Amino acid sequence: MATSQKAARLGEEVWKTRVDKVNAELVTLTYGTIVSQLCADYDNDYAQVNQQLDKMGYNIGMRLIEDFLAKSNTGRCGNFRDTAEMISKVGFKIFLNITPTVTNWTADNKQFSLLFDENPLADFVELPDDGRAQDELWFSNIFCGILRGALEMVQMSIEARFVSDVLRGNDVTEMRVTLIRYIEDEMPPDDE
Amino acid sequence: MPSPSSPPRAHGPTTSREQPPSIRRAPPSRCSRVNCRPADSAAPDQLPSGNMIVCVAVVGHQNNPLYLQSFTEADDALKLHHVVHCSLDVIDERVNNPKRSAPTLNETFLGLLYPTENYKVYGYLTNTKVKFLMVTTDLDVKDADARNFFRKFHAAYVDAVSNPFHVPGKKIASRSFGARVSTIVKSFGSGTVG
């Protein structure tokens, strides 16, 4: 598909030319520490941890979208399918150098899955063996918040959640993204 | 059994035959685990092929056991662990009395520590004073092979402690570490270097 190729090219170009790189292990270990500290702080109440990660992600996403728009210099997406391609091939590409696969669209084009073949946040990680973490903790839940926050700033209200994770022993890491609505009323006033 | 709080002290070589506290402290809890032998997938059809590692261990900087795994069918885990713990004294001795020249400053590989009739023990000391030990039945191991083994083992250890849910200084419970160690141990027998 044309948009997808275009997005891939754009992502590649921005990644190569306009992004400052940091050591991947620094990111991995920092994020890992945050999650394990949250687990300690909330006494292994993993539902709470998921929620906190989502909140943190939301705050990141709200700011990150600005950076994304500045670096990628793209305009509005025509439809939600383009948005998905942008997220995967430009967004994830320039910030993490990964391109999760966009798949499993519903017929109404309002819901898709992102399949993460690799996940830099989860390198080295093995979930605690307490019998609950495997069922309750979404280790990379910050991604959900980031998408939610970022898309909200560009007038899209979405819901994102993980449905499977290799850390839990699933075959793939899959995030389900659902478009709830376009936020029409909060469109910035037309000042042109 | 001595109280667990007694620090596992290092003894001189003369006392090493009697079990120092750390020896007694470790095996009882570990043996039961060894008997359930998760590593057996490695062993059965690989009978002494010349290069056989029978036991590997990771020991913390206070000589506290972090990981101990034997790779034998027979019920000799206790004996192997005893050998491992005796070797710790040899490490301490070497570290405290560095006889040989200065260029060993950054040398982590300690070489052959403790030859017995049936086993040879090789050691490796990281800069954080974590010790790796390897017990082999092969009495003719090349230094390069042992070095190579420890290099891979060190890499596996680094990844295991990078797990954010691992608490430094606690035993390594990671399954993937166990699996990786089994693989490394298996490949040691095949005699490939590199």
TrEMBL record, chain A:
InterPro entries referenced in this protein's UniProt entry, alphabetically: Bet3, NO_sig/Golgi_transp_ligand-bd, TRAPP_component
Keywords: Endoplasmic reticulum, ER-Golgi transport, Golgi apparatus, Transport
One of the protein's GO biological processes: macroautophagy
GO (cellular component) term, any one: TRAPP complex
Presence of keyword NAD: no
Superkingdom in the source lineage: Eukaryota
Annotated signal sequence range: none
Compartments where found: Endoplasmic reticulum; Golgi apparatus, cis-Golgi network
KW Cell membrane (keyword) present: no
UniProt xrefs under CDD domains: TRAPPC3_bet3
Family of this protein: Belongs to the TRAPP small subunits family. BET3 subfamily.
Function statement: May play a role in vesicular transport from endoplasmic reticulum to Golgi.
PANTHER family assigned to the protein according to its UniProt record, in alphabetical order: TRAFFICKING PROTEIN PARTICLE COMPLEX SUBUNIT 3
Subunit structure and binding partners: Homodimer.
Name under which the protein is recorded: Trafficking protein particle complex subunit
Source organism per UniProt: Hordeum vulgare subsp. vulgare
TrEMBL record, chain B:
Pfam families membership: Sedlin_N (PF04628)
Region (Disordered), start-end ranges: 1-43
SUPFAM superfamilies: SNARE-like
GO biological process, one term: endoplasmic reticulum to Golgi vesicle-mediated transport
GO cellular component terms, A-Z: cytoplasm; nucleus; TRAPP complex
PANTHER family according to UniProt: TRAFFICKING PROTEIN PARTICLE COMPLEX SUBUNIT 2
Annotated family: Belongs to the TRAPP small subunits family. Sedlin subfamily.
Protein name per the record: Trafficking protein particle complex subunit 2-like protein
Protein source organism: Hordeum vulgare subsp. vulgare
